[in-house]
Amino acid sequence: MKKIGFLNFGHWTPSPHSQVRTASDSLLQSIDLAVATEELGADGAYFRVHHFANQLSSPFPLLAAVGAKTSRIEIGTGVIDMRYENPLYMAEDAGSADLIAGGRLQLGISRGSPEQVIDGWRYFGYEPADGEEHADMARQHTDVLLQVLQGKGFAQPNPRPMFPNPPGLLRIEPHSEGLRERIWWGAASDATARWAAKQGMHLMSSTLKADESGEPFHVQQRKQIDVFRKAWSEAGHAHEPRVSVSRSIMPITTDLDRAYFGREGESTDQVGQIEANLRAVFGRTYAAEPDALIEQLAGDEAIAAADTLLLTVPNQLGVDYNVHLLETIIKDVAPGLGWR
Q1: Which residues contact 333 (CB under 8 A, 6 or more apart)?
Q2: What is the DSSP string of 27-61?
Q3: Residues of 223-251 as b/e, b for ≥16 C-beta within 10 angstroms?
Q4: How far apart are CA 237 and CA 200, in angstroms?
Q5: Class assignment of domain 3-154+173-337?
Q6: With 0-12 CB in 10 A as exposed, 13-18 as middle and 19+ as buried, what is 263?
Q7: CA separation for the pair 193, 205 (Å, rounded)
Q8: Which end of the chain lies in a sparser environment, N or C, as judged by fewer CB atoms within 10 Å?
Q9: How far from the centroid of its chain's Cα atoms is residue 255's Cα?
Q10: What pLDDT does residue 265 have?
Q11: Backbone angles phi, psi at 30, to 5 degrees
Q12: Where are the domains positioned within the chain?
């Protein structure tokens, strides 16, 4: 069995060819897709976070709405850029969303990726300390978040409060028990996966990875998973580790599918420079009829090693079309791979 969910970037554009033309369309359709995904029997609804872009950004109102409209599926992010975050306020938001969802939040966070503007986190009021990089700042924000999610008191109470306080130091409220054990880190490299394991965060590995060996993408990603699990075991955490990988998988069963994705069947891994010092390998898109997809996906070592598969969806094609894609994968592809 494998958990299967979608990962939605929430793009919108006023183009007449898009089914998602406004921010309102993107948010409301994201909720509708999550509800439909639960009805299909899938396992998760995850949302990407990008700032200064026509995409989903502030995730917690959306997560709370999805949590209120669903009852079973996991809801989460893939991922929140911690360079932009006030960790205390984030802990309040996350605790509220998790309580609304009944403890179903799976919160993916990371250092972040190249953004639409230069050093966008500066506009949010954050600056790395002297001699530090923005990645250091992201990890510092993360450390604070992980500490306060444990639910221990740390703030000195006012001796003359407006309302009575419980005894001792005060903690962030609302506190959602168990959320600390449902934090994931989006790792691009083996070293970062190892660091995440030591912190007791689960691993999110996306459709790209730092090219560290020149091997095929799925092989490098599987080795990253091995590194993560080994480090987790050595750290001796009490809770079980989880691993998700993201994939673009487009089953072709109709003429419309073929028109949209027929040429993607020839897709291969790509290599590119996404940052000055980061050469990355990008995984292929899988696009074929279900029987061919089963054969192709059976050879993907990283999917086999992961417990959770997040399907990147072409959200601008609309809710109905994306439900069609997800339903085909769940009913016609997943059983042939032993995922269902």
Answers
A1: 249, 251, 290, 293, 294, 297
A2: HHHHHHHHHHHHHHT--EEEE---SSSSS----HH
A3: bbbebbbebbeeeeeeeebbbbbbbbbbb
A4: 7
A5: alpha beta
A6: exposed
A7: 9
A8: N
A9: 31
A10: 87
A11: -60, -40
A12: 3-154+173-337
- Where are any strands of DSSP class E within the chain? 3-8, 44-47, 74-81, 105-110, 183-186, 202-205, 208-210, 243-251, 270-275, 278-282, 285-288, 308-312
Give the span between the Cα atoms of 252 and 328, in whole angstroms: 9
Tell me the DSSP string of 187-251.
-SSHHHHHHHHHTT-EEEE-SEEE-SSSS-HHHHHHHHHHHHHHHHHHHT-SSPP-EEEEEEEEE
Question: Are the CB atoms for 6 and 46 separated by under 8 Å?
Answer: yes
- pLDDT given for residue 278 in this prediction: 82
Q: What is the mean pLDDT of each run of 10 residues along the chain (340 residues)?
A: 96 96 98 98 97 96 98 98 98 98 98 90 96 96 98 96 94 98 97 98 95 96 98 97 98 97 91 83 96 98 98 98 98 96
Which structure tokens are listed for 315?
């959200």
